[in-house]
Amino acid sequence: MAPFEDDYVPTLKILLIGNSSVGKSALMLRFTNDMWAPEESSTTIGVDFKVKMVMVGGKPYKLTVWDTAGQERFRTLTKSYYRNAQAVLVVYDITNRATFEELPRWLKELEANTASDIVKVLVGNKLDKDSSRAVTTEEGEDMADRYNVGFLEASAKSNTHVKECFMEMVETIIETPTLWGQSTTGLLLPRGDDILELEAAREENGGLSLCQC
Q1: What's the start-to-end Cα distance of the chain, in Å?
Q2: Cα-trace Rg, the chain
Q3: Considering the entire predicted model, what is its pTM?
Q4: Residues 69 and 77 sit within 8 Å (Cβ to Cβ)
Q5: Residues 14 and 87: beta-carbon distance below 8 Å
Q6: pLDDT value at position 47?
Q7: Which CATH architecture has domain 6-205?
Q8: CA gap 44, 196 in Å, rounded
């Protein structure tokens, strides 16, 4: 039996949220394809996603990484994609203070649309532009402490702490029994049917192109 057969590989759903232009798509592309999405890329419309296989503890897992649009006009659309997510990266740009000041709105929306046991991590992106920093590391840590979420600073461009952002969440999901259901065969499965959701999203969004949003 192939180790990565869909019927036997647990699927985890990870969502990225935050303002437009903070680099959500760049983080997703760097993690899933080890590629850099240039700054001039077009903005995500609606929702995009990538799939990545990882090994944890010698076992395979399929990650579906969902990138949501940050513009206000897409808020109704993207709220539906919180369903069945097991982890969420809340991203801001350390060089743009306005994106940091919007975090309470994103974190409150996250709390309203997800279960209390979901894994949440605050990510200050664009660490490669540290000389242009508008938000201190201490401010990011204080925000994370206030909302009881994890915290990391990262750079999709220089590939700094990107893998850590995702893999620490994956390990936490695996260690959190309430984020999992049990199949009749005894195989651990995520809550909901994300494979069907992926196909529905593909049809609904018409093969959206990847971008930095």
Answers
A1: 39
A2: 16
A3: 0.78
A4: yes
A5: yes
A6: 62
A7: 3-Layer(aba) Sandwich (3.40)
A8: 22
CB atoms near residue 18 (< 10 Å) = 26
| 118 Cβ contact list (under 8 Å, min separation 6) | 85, 86, 87, 88, 110, 179
81 versus 74: which is more confidently predicted? Answer: 81
CB atoms within 10 A of CB 119: 23
85 contacts 6 by C-beta, under 8 angstroms: no
Say what the pLDDT of residue 78 is. 56
Give tens-digit pLDDT for 116-159: 889 999 999 999 999 999 999 999 999 999 999 999 999 999 99
- The secondary structure element, H or E, covering residue 162 is helix 162-174
Q: Which residues contact 87 (CB under 8 A, 6 or more apart)?
A: 12, 13, 14, 15, 118, 119, 120, 121, 169, 170, 172, 173
Judged against a pLDDT cut of 90, whether residue 160 lies above it is answered with: yes
How confident is the model over 6-32, as a mean pLDDT? 87
**Spans of all domains in the chain:** 6-205
d(CA 34, CA 12): 19
Is residue 114 very low, low, confident or very high in pLDDT (cuts 50, 70, 90)? confident
Contact criterion met (CB below 8 Å) for 162 and 30: yes
CA proximity to 162, closest of 67, 50, 23: 23
Residues 205, 114, 100: CA angle, nearest 5 degrees? 80
